[in-house]
Amino acid sequence: MRYFGSVAFFRHLIILALLLMAVLSGKYLIDVFIRKEPPEIKKERVSDLQYDKKSLSESDGTPQNRPPSFSYQSAYSELYGAAGQERELQDGVVYLTFDDGPSKYTPAFLDLLKKHGVQATFFLVGTNVQRYPSVVRRIKSEGHAIGVHTYSHKYLQIYMNVDSYLKDFSMAKDAIYRATGDRCAIFRFPGGSINVFNSRIYGELTAEMLRRGFKFYDWNVSAGDAVKKTIKKNIIDNVANNVRRDQPNIVLMHDTSELSLTSLEQIILRLKKENYIFKALGNEDRPITFTHIK
Ligand SMILES: [Zn+2]
């Protein structure tokens, strides 16, 4: 019996066709699911390489040892601070700092500080400065220090990249200048200089802000007054139990609630009883900043 045309021949032909289909569809699946880069991206990479080659040949062969420069460094040409000569913060001194204001509570904070003869520092949010410009002028006229705490205070927006931070900072600094005539050189990062929102850019961002002559302050004592469902006793204890005589104490509080306000009076009274003195931060003071721990 002849093999060609026989039942066995057709059976083998079908098996062969099925095998061929399996191989081809396997190759297709590999293309779709495993190969990560579509051909178009590969093409772009090739043109990048050609571009690099071109710029290298134009640099007449000398090695490129210049420090890196980034486009944001030449942007915002007015945005420079004038932080003065460094002066050590004093051990045992309490530097009260209030973030996120001014708010409707700030005048009462100012009354309280005046009543006890205490000087403090206010890190202001630009939108609130525009809302309460006369309060900002009062903060200044009563001898307190003023720093920038961004314009929008929107973490996702300001920490998107260095340029978006600078843009926001510039607006906040301008708002304070319009209210007081002062050009701030000190500031505080929302969430502190190292936080989960800026972890990708904080090195680059702090370097750029320092290069521009601005000085930022973190804190080493936190009142925890912005913590949900906290109580007055905890706020007072968080401060009074953590200030020390062998360090400058930068205390983080907020001038945005009744609870912070009533806690503040107790904090001042308790620390005064323990003979602590209070001061405002200045452009010259060496800042306290967080240390990155890996
Ligand atoms: Zn804040």
From TrEMBL:
It holds the Pfam family Polysacc_deac_1. Gene3D superfamilies: Glycoside hydrolase/deacetylase. GO terms for molecular function: hydrolase activity, acting on carbon-nitrogen (but not peptide) bonds. Residues 45-57 have a biased composition (Basic and acidic residues). One of its GO terms (biological process) is carbohydrate metabolic process. Residues 58-68 have a biased composition (Polar residues). Coiled coil: none annotated. Residues 45-68 are annotated as: Disordered. Residues 92-279 form the NodB homology domain. This is NodB homology domain-containing protein.
